[in-house]
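[Discussion] Sanity-checking designs against the backbone

I'm trying to build intuition for which residues belong where. Below is a C-alpha cell string of 174 positions. I'd appreciate it if someone posts a full sequence so I can compare it with mine line by line.
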C-alpha cells in the first residue's frame, strides 16, 4: 500500500508526508506527471495531507503539504490542490482508503477523450493484475475545470470502484 501506519501520531504524519513526497517524485520521474499537473493525498487520522495547488509532483516539500479536514477545511500548510474536492469525494465513499492519486498522464487522458461503447467499463480486462487491482473502470462524464459537481459524480461511483476515469481529464485512484 501507499502507506500503512497507525493513524494519528505525529511520527506517522511525518512518515506520511515523506512517503507522499517520495511517491510523487517517482510518478513525476517516470513521466506520469508533468509541470504542475496531478495531485496526491494521504489520510492521516481525521485529516488529509494533499499536494498544494500549483505544485510540481517532482519538487514537493513535505513541510508545505496542505493539511485539510475531511470536509476540506484548511488546517495547515500551503493551500490545497484546486482538485482537493475529488480526493474528498473518494475518501467519503471509501473509508478504508489510505491514499488517492489523480494524474493527467498523457495515455490516460487520451483514453479519457475517446468515444467508449460502455461508459461503465472503459478498459477491457487486459491482465489479471488489472482485474484484481482496478476491476471495472467507469468513465465519469465531463465537467468544466473546477466544477464541484464533478465531486458528486465521482462520489456516486467511488463506493463501488477504487478507480474512475474522468472524461477529458484523467484517472482518480484510491
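Best answer:
Here's mine. Compare freely.
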Amino acid at each position: 500500500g501507499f502507506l500503512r501506519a497507525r493513524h494519528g501520531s505525529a511520527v506517522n504524519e511525518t512518515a506520511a508526508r515523506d512517503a507522499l513526497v517520495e511517491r510523487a517524485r517517482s510518478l513525476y520521474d517516470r513521466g506520469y506527471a508533468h509541470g504542475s499537473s496531478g495531485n496526491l493525498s494521504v489520510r492521516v487520522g481525521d485529516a488529509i495531507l494533499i499536494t498544494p495547488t500549483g505544485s510540481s509532483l517532482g519538487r514537493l516539500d513535505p513541510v508545505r503539504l496542505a493539511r485539510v479536514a475531511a470536509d476540506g477545511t484548511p488546517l495547515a500548510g500551503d493551500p490545497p490542490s484546486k482538485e482537493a474536492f475529488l480526493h474528498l469525494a473518494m475518501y467519503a465513499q471509501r473509508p478504508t482508503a489510505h491514499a488517492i492519486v489523480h494524474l493527467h498522464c498523457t495515455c490516460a487522458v487520451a483514453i479519457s477523450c475517446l468515444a467508449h461503447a460502455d461508459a461503465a467499463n472503459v478498459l477491457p480486462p487486459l491482465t489479471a493484475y488489472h482485474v484484481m487491482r482496478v476491476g471495472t473502470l467507469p468513465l465519469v462524464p465531463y465537467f468544466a475545470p473546477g466544477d464541484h459537481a464533478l465531486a458528486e459524480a465521482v462520489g456516486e461511483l467511488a463506493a463501488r470502484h477504487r478507480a474512475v476515469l474522468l472524461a477529458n481529464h484523467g484517472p482518480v485512484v484510491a
